[in-house]
Amino acid sequence: MATVTFDSATRIYPKSDRPAVDGLDLQIGDGEFLVLVGPSGCGKSTSLRMLAGLEEIDAGSIRIGDRDVTDAPPKDRDIAMVFQNYALYPHMTVEQNMGFALKIAGVPKSEIATRVAEAAKILDLEDYLGRRPKALSGGQRQRVAMGRAIVRSPQVFLMDEPLSNLDAKLRVQTRTQIAALQRRLGVTTVYVTHDQVEAMTMGDRVAVLKDGLLQQCDTPGTLYERPANTFVAGFIGSPAMNVITGPVVDGGVRLAGAVLPVPRERLLRAAGDGGRVTVGFRPEAVELAPEGVPVVVNVVEQLGSDAFLYATLGASDDGDVLHTADLVVRTEPRSAPAVGETVHLRVREGGLHVFDPVSQQRID
Amino acid sequence: MTTLASAPEQTATAPAATPTRTRRRGARKVTSAGPLTHVLLVLTAFLSVFPLYWTAVAASKTNAELAGTPPPFLPDADLFTNIGRAMEEAPIGLAIVNSVIVAGCITVGTVLCSTLAGFAFAKLRFRGNKTLLGLVIGTMMVPTQLAIIPLFILIAQLQWVDHLQAVVLPTLVSAFGVFFMRQFLSQALPDELLEAARVDGASTMRTFWSVVVPVARPAMAVLAMLTFLTAWNDFFWPIIALTSENPTVQVALAGLGGGYVPDTAVIMAGTLVGTLPVLVVFVVLGKQIVGGIMQGAVKG
Amino acid sequence: MTIASDDPRVAAAAAPPPSVPPAPATAARRRRSRLTRNRWGYAYVAPFFLLFAAFSLYPFLYTAYISLHDVRLSDLDGAVFVGFGNYTELLQDEFFWNAARNTLTIGILSTVPQLAIALGLAHLLNYRLRGRTFFRVAMLMPYATSIAAATLVFAQLFGHDYGLINTLLEAVGFDRIDWESGSWTSQIAISVIVTWRWTGYNALIYLAAMQAIPNDLYEAATLDGASRWKQFVHVTIPALRPTILFTIVVSTIGAVQLFGEPLLFSGNGMTNGGVSNQYQTLGLLMYDQGWTNFRLGQAAATAWTMFLIILVVVGVYGLIARRRARAER
User: Fold this and answer.
1) Contacts for A208 with CB less than 8 Å, ≥ 6 apart
2) Rounded-to-integer distance, Cα B69 and Cα C329, Å
3) Are A302 and A195 within one domain?
4) How many angstroms separate the CA of residue A50 from the nearest CA in chain C?
């Protein structure tokens, strides 16, 4: 078991000007479950592959424990990896797949058998040890891929979107099982996903990447409560946070003729540039009120426990909203307004996030 | 970012655990064949097979019977007499043994060389790999004629004339084989499988034997069948490198056909004996060979 | 994808890669070629290229060398440099022009019907059929038959007195034809052998390509009201164009080298291609020059000429294909 440290790790693909991963700094604690999340092309998989030794590190370094592994080949890093497509050897049985690494390492046969049997027991694969991957279901293959990693008792588990080939229901189940298993084994784990729900439910901490740059790395709670910038604010949480930029007026920001109150000190720090400010509020942080920002309801989504209103800011002749964003609002399903109705919104106490309109950074 | 992560929706449909052959079989037209289609196909099949059938007929007749009108269309009892005479005229037994050895060695060597090189071209990045691959493809255009004079001088100097290695060694070079294996492995061998082996600690050599070869096995089998067939039937170089003292089947047949007085029944008997082994193999493995050729065609 | 080289020294010993000067490790951007560059690649391609160098490249160049010399098979060491003498002599040689003409006509006679029939056959095989495998295997049987066997059989079938084909012609009221001695008839007979051996093979190649055409193209065409023939012309043929070009190139290369069929068709082992050389091809001429007349220099010049012909023809095909592709864009 070990810590993992990325120290300004950078990867620039040949024939590309922009780094795929740009000066990544990240400390992962011993036994921690860290999730790398971000949209396609953000560099999350590249970061994982750099840690695995499958991708060169053009600048900076990576350490596992106290050991600098920047130039070490994968086999000398004491890591195990679970691939998105599982990458099971098609001609080997489940047992052979799980024992392959040990066999190469020269572990005695009897010990291989014991360790494979143990892992198979944990993963409920005992009945399938003699089968080839072709004869297994998707979920079973996924477990074999996990088993192959577990058997080696590595210092770090690396998982590259291991659930994306499962159907939705199985994915939810497996996600819980993997998280529980990781806590039980206590092995440091780096997990890549593009699914923010997966990230939030599984990780001790979540690192959000965009365009090769680390945006924020923190616990799921903090990411949700205090997103460091508008990107994280929009990426984490579903439905996404409403983010709007508008002109600063006395006591708040003007939206569709009404004023959304913003605490004075934060307003002052944000208003430095051209008298505008970016505010964000989550759908569930809004309530309908007799007075407030007017919006026109376009669609009402009834989910049973909740209802979501998809609305646009109400008519305003001074064109003061700089981003005519669509807004999402959660309401009680019973008292949801009708389509076409104009309602007024108020942000609940503590539900407002303020961002610098230029740097997009959070302002507290 | 790797394509893996940037396009999960594409890779998701094809789990790496089962690198199924991606040949499209679904694109089959719904239309059933009409009677005319069947008639034409039966006619073609007949024309394809008839000369071979006639070989068997002619091989089992006396020359006098063959000259009769109408000509005979059913096999007869003189087959073994004719084969016996053909064996006297040319060392057909020796030729078959030689052909088995030659075609066997060529097949093993070609499949091995082609798999090694095909893997390297498909999956390894090394300086100059594109140039070398271009060279391989270019080689396919070079006519056999261009090499035989120096090769003949070479084997003459090595005193290899009439020795089987003179036929085996030059024929081991199969640009087609390299290209064929490269095309197959680029598709059938997912990069992740090699990465998994790397993470598992396998050396490059170990990866080749434990991961690449098992995945390549179907294509290796197809290549082996095609190579064996080609080697068995090869004519131009063997007829230069060997004499009728130590011939392959084709050389023996050429000797038989070039006799002073053509003896139809004997020539046909020899042709039958020399062709039968491959035809038997072909009938047994015909389906696989057909599949292999079609598979190679789509990839090539 | 790459595999890290476990021990580059081993690979380097097997096939020394071009030396890479060790780049100084700068703090800003280190070059680590170790992880993605794989010198094992050279070790893997080495067996092929060693054989290639010994039995293809070296002979290839040596043939060029010989073609500039007067070399006799009987006296290999007595080579005399004659420059392009062998080539100029060749171009003035009526046998060369005769062989070139024969190669061209036999090439056309064998390639054009062969590919046309193959295309039609592939279309038929692409219908839903009972006994699919049987038809495919039956049509590939000639491919499995060697040139020698096929030619011997067809030489009998085309025989003057007792040949089955003449018997058949007579039965339907025609005269017997002396296939072997006539110029056109012998060339047609040889083309028939080539066509017989290769039609089924090419049909399978076309069939494979046809099956790769997405079905929705046909569905769309059907919805647009295109008849089956229109679909064949407007969907199948365009989709098959690369494959057709490929088969044309392969057949052409084969046709230029044609050797075994004309050699064995005479039935007497002579290399002159008939009494009046009526079916002597370039391949046969080259063999005749080298192994009958012992003039290896001359034969080498013919071999190189054949290669140049292939290059020119394939180059012309490539140009036509590119122009067509551009015209359609």
Assistant:
1) A37, A38, A214, A215, A216, A217, A223, A231, A232, A235, A236
2) 61
3) no
4) 11
Would the pLDDT of C301 be above 90?
yes
Q: Which single residue is written with the structure tokens 């476990």?
A: C6
**Homologous superfamily assigned to C93-328:** MetI-like (1.10.3720.10)
Average pLDDT over residues A84-100: 94
Q: Kindly determine whether residue A58 and residue C30, on different chains, have CB atoms separated by under 8 Å.
A: yes
pLDDT-derived band at B8 (thresholds 50, 70, 90) equals: very low
Interatomic CA distance for residues C60 and A198, integer angstroms: 62
Q: Which residue of B has its CA nearest to A88?
A: B17
Which domain, by its residues, includes A183?
4-234
Q: What is the pLDDT of residues C180-211, one digit of tens each?
A: 888 899 999 999 999 999 999 999 999 999 98
Contacts of C31 in chain A (CB under 8 A): 58
* A154 and A253 belong to one structural domain: no
Domain tally, chain A: 2
* Same domain (yes/no): A224, A330: no
Same domain, A204 and A353: no
- Which residues in A lie closer than 8 A to residue C38 (C-beta atoms)? none
How far apart are the C-alpha atoms of A326 and A304, rounded to whole Å?
22
User: C40, B204: Cβ pair inside 8 Å?
Assistant: yes
The Cα-based distances of C292 to A320, C12, C73, C246, C264 in angstroms read 98, 47, 9, 35, 15
CB–CB contact C56 B142 (8 Å) = yes
Distances (CA, A) of A245 to A248, A279, A293, A362: 9, 6, 14, 13
CATH numbers and ranges of domains, chain B: 49-299 (1.10.3720.10)
By the 8 A CB rule, do A158 and A55 touch? Answer: no
For C30, name the nearest residue in chain A, comparing CA atoms only: A58
- Asked if C36 lies within 8 A of A74 by C-beta distance, the reply is no
- Residue A143's CATH number: 3.40.50.300
Contacts of B50 (CB under 8 A, 6+ apart): none
Predicted complex ipTM: 0.84
Point out the least confidently predicted range of B4-18, B118-132, B234-248: B4-18
Say if residue A142 is in the same domain as residue A227: yes
Q: Which residue in this structure is represented by tokens 């389906």?
A: B287
State whether C32 and A56 contact (CB < 8 Å): yes
Cβ atoms within 10 Å, residue A172 = 14
Which of B44, B51, B233 minimises the CB distance to C157? Answer: B51
Mean pLDDT, all residues of chain B: 81
- Number of Cβ within a 10 Å radius of residue C154: 23
3-state helix, strand, coil in chain C (%, to 5): 70, 5, 25
